[in-house]
Amino acid sequence: MAAVKRLTQRDIAQLAGVSQATVSLVLNGTPLSRSRIPTETRERVEKVIRDTGYVADPVARKMVKGLNRILGVFTYEPAFPSGQADFFTPFLFGIEEAAQTLGYDLLLLTGAGQQRKIFGDNVRLRLADGCVILGRKFDNTELARLVAGDFPFVAVGRRDDAGGPVPYVGGDYAPATSALVERAKSFGHRRIAYVGLNEGAESTVDRWYGFSRSVGEAELVTSIFEVGRPPNEILDILFAAGATCVFVTELADAIAIEHAARTRGLSIPDDLSIVVLGNHIRAEEPGRRFTSFAIPREAMARAATEMLVRRVEHDAPVEQLLLHCEPLEGDTLGAPSSKTKKTK
Amino acid sequence: MAAVKRLTQRDIAQLAGVSQATVSLVLNGTPLSRSRIPTETRERVEKVIRDTGYVADPVARKMVKGLNRILGVFTYEPAFPSGQADFFTPFLFGIEEAAQTLGYDLLLLTGAGQQRKIFGDNVRLRLADGCVILGRKFDNTELARLVAGDFPFVAVGRRDDAGGPVPYVGGDYAPATSALVERAKSFGHRRIAYVGLNEGAESTVDRWYGFSRSVGEAELVTSIFEVGRPPNEILDILFAAGATCVFVTELADAIAIEHAARTRGLSIPDDLSIVVLGNHIRAEEPGRRFTSFAIPREAMARAATEMLVRRVEHDAPVEQLLLHCEPLEGDTLGAPSSKTKKTK
DNA sequence: ATTAGCTGCTAATACGTATCAGCACTTCTG
DNA sequence: CAGAAGTGCTGATACGTATTAGCAGCTAAT
User: Fold this and answer.
1) Which of A62, B23, B223, B266 could form a disulfide with B271 if both were Cys (CB 3.0 to 4.6 A apart)?
2) Measured from the CB, is B57 under 7 Å from any atom of strand D?
């Protein structure tokens, strides 16, 4: 109970009748130095170590070696589901898997309350060899400091430059969105709407960019750069503009719109096609499978972790990687009904 | 890129024209020593710190102070759901919540493959101030070494002594099981069976103990101390023994038995009551809500974390805590049908 | 017989921080 | 005016390990 003094190499040395340096050499000597310790001595030391159960203090080790085989995982929000929103789980799973394969442990630095900063008084982050950064909102000042500093990190999700290129692994939302637009067009849609933000987070911008790149001037009939607006208002705007298909960035909006449309006795996708940009968590549950694209969260996290380890171990240069997002064949995108077509 | 040398207090000292010791005093001086540094000097040092973005190296800090405000979480199995079995999630959530409240970070030490031992060559565990241990199977030798050693830890789940009392927070399964037995008896059941192991893990033993304590000699008609046996065999044995109610430790067994019974055209709970000992993950999904008791996983994890911090910070004595498990009113326990009763 | 090389070890140092003892100087006290 | 007390700082050391330089003592070679 009364905190027995920890065993140190000095204790082992004394017990084995050698010096501390010899103990250290026995434990992790290079082939060169190891050859200079006779078997007899080595075995004596090893026996003492076995008998006492000594293990080297990783803290002291880290001090001198500089590496820990620990990766930090930084998030502003708490990492575990406080209710249903287990947004982080697939990421954490991917990180853990990769870390384990590579022989690293994980230091979880989750947003302590609201005000947790990377650069605070109590920055335990540097205990790790490097750090994976999770979460959409990320203070840009801090990102810039990270970029400027020497601490290895990799972001999950694309990041704009912050005083220099940011290493990241993200989802390739722009082409994925483009592909869905093309698919809508091939179904015959010529009057397409967009509901969601078009600026702010990089992932948002990418979606809008992919959308606007593929949709023609004549085809984009209306845009609602807003989130969480009452679905009936949205529907009114959509139909006033003669839209046959709507692209939505937020699943919640899509669900609301779908529900409102059904309430009006409309059929989806006959009267209105709905495309969601990215498979959000629990997208399956509402009973309707929205047409969308898959976000390979686990793969992103794995790739980010591997990239981080490359940076840590080999001081690899900054990489930026966007992973392909597979289209998800749902049941909310189809040909516009002839009636609707006639309207045109 | 080329790993710029980390800033140290010496650098700060030089820039501010003071000594390293002064920098350290400015950063974390006691009221006594702080009073001896004039405001002017302190501000000069603080400015340099702000300008350079210096942060103290937590490793060096830990070396001298001995504490880190980091808690380890050790599991043999990977901590995150590799598929459906997110067994650990509620525990991790509870631990994270408590750790965050108490101002600790988490070091995840998940079973690296199959052979991860706490006492291995690469024991990174001691980097933390203490450690929460998760998982049912736990090498008893290692537990004994932990008990004997000076490293603070707390187990989630009751543990038998291992060369000394083990600090833990567990679920109080025995009384919870007893309560369910009493409830079955009050429904009129007089011929009760048990399916599940009766030895091995502490949690298993507790269930059997609670069961056998409450059930009378005459009432226990048969026991199948085995898991995963074909459900039809089980049913045959149960009915041969004239059981009207069966207590099952494994949800999988319960599901199989229920299914097999329905296939035979039997009604549950009329023809057979089924009680599951503990709400296993995703117990809701099969469509049928088994009568059982709740395992307060989050609360257990929180309590364990708080207990660990008490041990770390105040060298508190070993505590052992069992949390109440609330009965879960399901729809698989009811009065035996009169027909069945007549059989008696 | 000197030197070169090998063997078996150890002393010393560095890593970055916290902390204590204490130095040089000023100001107050009697 | 000697001593005490206070002020503003610094030097030294400890923490536990890894690592390098190098010291004895011995053997073999020139």
Assistant:
1) B266
2) no
